[in-house]
Amino acid sequence: MRSTLSSRWRASYGRLLAYLSSETRDLAGAEDALGEALLAALASWPRQGVPEQPEAWLLTAARHRLIDQARRARVRDTHADTVLRLADETAGTATSGDSFPDRRVELLFVCAHPAIDPALHTPLMLQTVLGLDAGRIAQAFLVPPVTMGQRLVRAKRKIREAGIPFQVPEERERPQRLGAVLEAVYAAYGLGSDEAPGVDPRGRELSQEAIWLARVVLTRMPEEPEVRGLLALMLFCEARRAARRSPEGRYVPLSEQDPATWSGESIREAERELSAASSLGRVGRFQLEAAIQSVHSERARGGRIDWDAIVVFYEHLARIAPTLGARVAQAAAVAETRGPAAALMHLDTLDGAAVSTYQPYWAVRAHLLRQLGRAPEAIAAYDRAVGLTEDPAIRKFLLERRG
Amino acid sequence: MRYMMLIYESPAEVERRGDPEGRPYIAAWQAYHKALVEAGAYVDGAPLKPAATATTVRLKEGRRQVQDGPFAEAKEELGGFMILELPSLDAALDWAARCPAAAIGALEIRPVDAEFHGNFPHP
To answer: Is B75 left (phi over 0), alpha (psi -120 to 50) or beta?
Structure first.
């Protein structure tokens, strides 16, 4: 669907779906109506020309279909009355221009609602706000398309039947609820970030979509520092995308990357967002992670990396968001300031069951053991890391290090 | 929308209701109930006698199977229910969080099926 339509459709789809579904809470019904409206557009626009206000045209067409659905369902479904009332109330909106309320942020809060299985927050966002089809989402999550389709259908049914509201949560609940939205957006970024450039352009597409989602949230919530923090973090990572692989496709770790290959434009935008976030005076997980990336980016300006600052940021991060990834990265930073023995002690405090299948833990551990001259243990740890690696380029890199 | 709140409490808590040490809990419930009524959300509800008084019935091959005890044995038992009229799940979650039972047990929120509510087909 997406490849056949202009980039304009991309922004329009989520806005139209959010608006159409926000009153009825019926995402599946709104998706059907919008899909039919789109088919009608594909049939009539090539012959009669694209209307002056395409979104208004689609909105009107979709609403007519929703009204038809509602009339058919009236006897058995209370939502039908809502749709018919909505049709009366908004009768003037569609014809008055391409300006109707943007409820995409409300839709994002629905997708990441605590009453919805967290594993479905990101898939729901990708499908509803971005219009990705279930097959594409299934591919990213490594599940069969039918399975993903069924899960999404069930989640949308729960949204409708449990009465999950399309609203920005009240202040008391907002930090936690916004956190879930941002986590889901970051998960979408992560789905695309480990792909080699040029190898799988679809991976890169998901990263771009995640950055775009963060911008949508930022437009509505410019006073939320964590939204800016997340955007900054993703932009820092995105700036180094090309540098993570050599022209021959070899994996290049951050410390060996040539800063000249980083995107200066993305780094500058990330720095602006991070500084705007910190001026709001409420630190959070994403701002800290972005700040760590900002310190690494000093190399682009010819500066040296301030490892002491990075260690401080990681200590703070470990207190508010002690993810395994952050704790392992913290050990790597400790190695730079206090040496490999101290870093190894830090790794030894982590939960043994959790790290047993976590590749970065074994890669860092192997590196530290090598520095300490404990060769046989280092080789054993490298082997664990190699065995846990999915990315062929990283596997090759680790095997070379192992020697 | 109409929601049913299923209130799960520990058996000890249900047993204590009539005792003097259960009084603060009962007082909290009375205040909570009053707030629900004043907000116009309360439709119906009642506490239930302890799960030990429950009897479960099934019909297996035309024969009545009667069993002593609740349908499902659990650490926490169904101690009561409420029917509330509220605009959304978020409103229901807010009221559930205010419920005195939320701090010591759990509340399950279930939307009432509007299709059949009050319209059970009669012969």
So the answer is: alpha
Listed residue (A65, A19, A11, A20) closest to A39, CA to CA: A65
Cβ contact B88–A164 (<8 Å): yes
The whole model's pTM is what?
Answer: 0.84
Contact indicator for A34, A16 with CB cutoff of 8 Å:
yes
Q: What is the value of ipTM here, to two decimals? A: 0.76
What does each C-alpha distance from B19 to A200, B14, B75 come to in angstroms? 68, 10, 21
| Across A136-163, average pLDDT | 92
Q: Which residues of A190-227 are buried (b: 16+ CB within 10 A; e: fewer)?
A: ebbbebbeeeeeebbbbbebbbbbbebbbeebeebbbb
pLDDT given at position A357: 87
Q: Quote the pLDDT of residue A190.
A: 84
The 3-state DSSP class for residue B82 equals strand
pLDDT tens per residue across span A207-231: 888 999 999 999 999 999 999 999 9
Residue A355, SS3 per DSSP: helix
Nearest-Å Rg of the Cα atoms of chain A is 24
Half-sphere exposure of B85 (CA within 13 A, CB side): 10
Give start and end residues of each alpha helix (H) in A163-284: 174-193, 201-220, 225-239, 264-278
User: In this structure, what token pair is assigned to residue A125?
Assistant: 């966002």
Give SS3 for A205: helix
CATH of domain B2-111: 3.30.70.1060
Domain ranges of chain B: 2-111
Retrieve residue A270's tokens: 């990330």
Amino acid at B64: R
Chain A CB within 8 Å of residue B87 CB: yes
Residues forming beta bridges with residue B44, ordered by sequence position? B83
CA separation, residue A100 to residues A212, A221, A244, A335 (Å): 20, 18, 42, 54
**Number of helices (H), then strands (E), in chain A:** 20, 0
Residue type, A277: A
Name the residue among A191, A25, A200 with its Cα closest to residue A119: A191
Cβ atoms of A145 and A110 within 8 Å: the answer is no
Residues of B in contact with A163 (CB under 8 A): 1, 3, 87-89, 92, 111
- Taking an 8 Å cut-off on Cβ atoms, the answer to whether B111 and A164 are in contact is no
Is the separation of the CB atoms in A231 and A273 below 8 Å?
A: yes
What one-character DSSP code corresponds to residue B122? P
List the one residue out of A289, A188, A278 whose CA is nearest residue A236: A289
Query: Mutate which of A23, A26, A74, A78 to disrupt the B interface (most B C-beta within 10 Å)?
Result: A78
Cβ of A7: how many Cβ atoms within 10 Å?
Answer: 8
At A89 the pLDDT is 58
